[in-house]
Amino acid sequence: MEKRLNILFYIFLVLAGCLLITDALAQDNLNRVVALNVKQKKIADVLTVIGEKGKFYFSYSNDVIKTDSVVSVTTSGQTIRNLLNEFFHGKVDYKEAQGYIILRPTPYRLSLVPDSAINPANVYYISGHVLDDNTGAPLENASVYDKGTLASTLTDAGGYFKLKVKADGVLTLTVSKEMYKDTSINFLSNVNVSIKPRNYYYSEGATSTKTERSWLGRMFVSSGQKIQNLNLGGFVSKVPVQTSFLPGLGSHGLMSGQVINNFSLNLLGGYNGGVDGVELGGLFNLNKQDVQYMQAAGLFNVVGGNSEGVQLAGINNNDLKSMKGLQAAGVFNMVKDTLTGVQIAGIFNHAGGYVNAFQAAGIYNYDKKDSKGFMIAGLANVTGGTSKGVQVAGIINKAHVIKGFSFAMVNVADTLDGYAIGLVNISKNGYAKILVYSDEITTANLAFKTGNAKLYSVISGGVNFTDQHTFYSYGFGVGHDFIFNDRYSLSAEGSTHILLAKGWKNQNQVNRLSALFNFKAGSKFGFFAGPSFNVYTNYSDHAGDSDIRQIIKNKPGLIDWGNRTKGWIGWTAGISLL
After folding, report:
1. CATH number of 108-196
2. Secretion signal: which residues (predicted)?
3. Which pTM does this prediction carry?
């Protein structure tokens, strides 16, 4: 039995080693050997062939990498790095990302010249100079760093650097500077051979400067960190933990913008490459790339990539790409692209892309493009595209197209294809009709009908002059039109009306259900008439109530539900304009 277990253990070790080697090869496409036989083909087509053979892609810009040159290559086996050197004659730099080789122009070369390298107790103390390879001139602000430990520094005006690195075995220093080809040099000591997974890679997203250009980035990200970003380009490393007091004063120093952390603790504020776990900031958090799972700050969060999970800030969350999850801020939230989930702010929410979320704001929500979900605001909701969800606002809802439900005092849309409830509903394709009519309660009435056939609103006012009893009414109603053809339709309408006589203290109310037959005589003129069922309620006794009750009492077919509530069948007839 023990022998079998030993055999299984060795098999497991072999498989694990194979997996590690496979992963290493997948990440080392530049040293992959390929065979080619192409004649008079554009470099772009040849790169496609090489990528297909290696099962990866080349990433480059046609504006800066000239790939329209024609080449002929015949080789039974050559590394991809050597082929690229032949194609571009050393004027292009190559960096690897997962599944990609990134090409970028590097018209200049540099040299790293070490002055001293002392290695007591596995701690390297290295100093030297970085020079332009062609002119010999010293290069200022070149990044000198170790990819494994993330120790780094910048050269001074004389090209000089000094760096302390703790390393076991071989130390490889890399020098990077914008517009120069990266150069690496090895420092040897006692070598212990072991297989260690790489904790770094290259990503085009790491070259973004959106966070640095934000007002917080301009204020707190140092010039040295910005230079590192330019020099190192897409270099990214992953580490478990980082701590900082302020950007630049933390465990990763100038390299903080190139590092993605599983846990990030920023006592006042921090600047990182990204977060794959949890980040906490006393005042603010700044991230170049994606953040997922949990981010909280006392004042501000700024994310240059995508956010996913929970994001909380005392004042503002600003996501420069998309957000998926819960975003809550004491004052306002900003998402430049797609928003999916929940967004809550004390003052306002802003989304620049498609929104499928619940949005709540004390003042207003603004979605630049289409939205689907639920929007609620104390003052206003604005959608630049099509609103397919529910909008609720204290004052106004605005959208290019309303296909969902909109509820506010005023609803405005270029195209109203959904349902809008408000005192006024304005749209280019909807109703804007003036109604002049009479009914059995008030002699003369004027109303304004807005919305569409699916759902319209009517605000009205009227006066009664008959039987020497003068009183007034004002009302609000909603309805639906059943369209038979271009001329004929039927309106089903419900409304409530307040009746006033001798002051504003009267509390007399009539609720009506009406069925109105409509005849359209012309493009802007029509007639309507129909029956209604009315329920009258008097809530208190004031001067003038007796006049109103006397008129109601004389209605034919009156239904008596007590001293204060009556019912009857009535009528309405009038004309519609516009």
Report:
1. 2.60.40.10
2. none
3. 0.70
